[in-house]
Amino acid sequence: MEPGLGWTLLSRDALRRAETLARNDVQGVRDEIGFLALHQAYADRFFPGTSVLHTRLRYVLFVPWIYQGLMESGVRERVAESIGQAELNLVGQLRMSGESGIIGKENYPKPTTQPPCLVYWSVLGKWRVLRSLADGTYPPRSVIHRSLGRRGAIGKLKDDDKQLMQEDQPLFASLPRPPKSWGKKTEPLDFRLLAREKEFLRNMMLALRRPDSNERSLLSRMVEANVQLGSQASMWSDEVAEVADDADRAALVRARQVASLSAIGRGVYAALVEDLRAVHDGVKSGTVNRDALENLIGEYGRDGLKLNVGKIQDDAAKMDTKILEVLDRTQTWLRHGNKDVTELYQVYCDAESKRKGKRARLPKTLFAREKRLEWLPDEHPVAQPLHYRWDVARSFLEDLTTDESGGEDE
Questions:
Q1: Is the pLDDT of residue 6 over 80?
Q2: 356-369 pLDDT tens trace
Q3: 113 SS3 class
Q4: Quick one: which of 149, 130, 150, 129 has its CA closest to 140?
Q5: Please, which residues have CB within 8 angstroms of residue 308's CB and are 6 or more apart in sequence?
Q6: How many angstroms separate the first and last alpha carbons of the chain?
Q7: What is residue 120's DSSP assignment?
Q8: Which residues of 144-175 are buried (b: 16+ CB within 10 A; e: fewer)?
Q9: What is the pTM of this model?
């Protein structure tokens, strides 16, 4: 019966990811041209391990505490169900405190498709809260679940290739002990960190490095400097630039310019689809996105024109050259003061076709026409600059630096 359990767990996670993609599509954040690759590259550079789905820093402890509790209780059957119930209990405790940022609050008492153990699993590996396997990789949740169901000792945890974790190591780093209210369904719990929890998380964050580099990340430097940020603080503020090293300071300038030019690029894509619907397909369409493009150029054009596109590979060496070509051509179009967006049609069509194949909207084919008919111009959100997960990083830093302490006894 064990193989059946493993397959169920893998399928469940796959379903959740699919639902997330579907929801993102509705919200208009799909990446038709490739701008998301720029977003991810700079976000991973500055704020390793973060995700747009993250809410509060204490979840980085909540998740391993859930697994730690299961291991201590000796659960070996219905592992996924036990974890799901623990997640629901956590939602209930957090709701009593009236906190914001609670994952699953809207669905409670039903489970959410994006529970914290799924949302935060990646950060546990990136921040080395989750211990690595012998080959340096980190075990996925499905492997952990199957291993818990058949384990004799957690030190014998294996991945799908029968690769042992480093011998005699526990699943997680040495965690601070949970607060007294942990796991008590009738007592409230909040996101305020105790001193011992701050110390643990601070040490994990201080060790964060830039991808493919031994250089410390911007997030690590901000933690070390104990940077105090208000809720409206910008990623481009002096407080951020002052703690960056020379390389990140230059990367921050480029990242801002990339964000501006990408906002215009996203606006160009929407305007092109809208124009094709009206001119090529003969479908009644408004001019919402074509009008919005003019406003985007007015707001972000000056900053976007300052970008040295070739320098992006200094920050992200593996960046796809197709998106760089799109940025370069968009910048040239801006520099020449052209108002005819159709002059950018071919480079955007090529980029989308490379990424999406038959799902592309820009080609002048019958299949693409059907995709354009599904696209509603008035409901397509106006393009915004890339954000690089700044709100998540700022929230984490605020949780770490706040002077308040949780109400539990230490």
A1: no
A2: 999 999 999 999 99
A3: coil
A4: 130
A5: 254
A6: 43
A7: T
A8: bbbbbbebeebeebbbeeeeebeeebbbbbee
A9: 0.86
3 state SS of 185? coil
Establish how many alpha carbons lie within 13 A of residue 177's alpha carbon, considering only the half-sphere containing its beta carbon: 6
Token pair for residue 117? 């153990």
Q: Which residue has the tokens 């194949």?
A: 357
> Angle 321-335/246-275 helices, nearest 10 degrees?
80
Name the pLDDT band for 72 (thresholds 50, 70, 90): confident
- What is the Cα–Cα distance from 107 to 96, expressed in whole angstroms? 15
Token pair 């493009």 is at which residue?
A: 293
Structure-token pair, residue 368: 């693409």
Give the residue carrying structure tokens 């592992």: 79
Cβ contacts of 159 within 8 Å, gap of 6 or more: 133, 137, 139, 143
Of the pLDDT bands very low, low, confident and very high (cuts 50, 70, 90), residue 410 is low
Q: Which of 105-109, 196-200, 201-205, 216-220 has the least mean pLDDT?
A: 105-109
Q: What is the CA radius of gyration of the chain?
A: 24
What separation in angstroms does the CA of 199 have from each of 97, 203, 363, 400?
Answer: 24, 6, 54, 9
- Tell me the mean pLDDT in the region 173-180: 96
* CA-closest candidate to residue 386, choices 126, 34, 55, 57: 34
CA distances from 138 to 72, 75, 128, 348, 351 (A): 21, 22, 9, 37, 33
Closest CA to 355 of 37, 29, 16, 21: 37
CA angle 27, 30, 36 (to 5 degrees): 125
Q: Which residues pair with 165 in a beta bridge?
A: 133
Do the beta carbons of residue 293 and residue 342 sit within 8 Å? no
Query: In this structure, what DSSP letter does residue 177 have?
Result: P
C-alpha count within 13 angstroms, C-beta hemisphere, residue 395:
17
pLDDT above 70 coverage of the chain, percent: 86
- List the single range of 31-35, 241-245, 390-394 with lowest mean pLDDT: 31-35
Cis amide leading into 3 (omega within 30)? no
Coil, helix or strand for 41? helix
pLDDT, tens only, 162-171: 554 544 468 8
- Can you tell me the mean pLDDT for 284-302? 93
Which residue type occupies 258? V
Q: In the numeric block, which tokens belong to residue 232? A: 């409206």
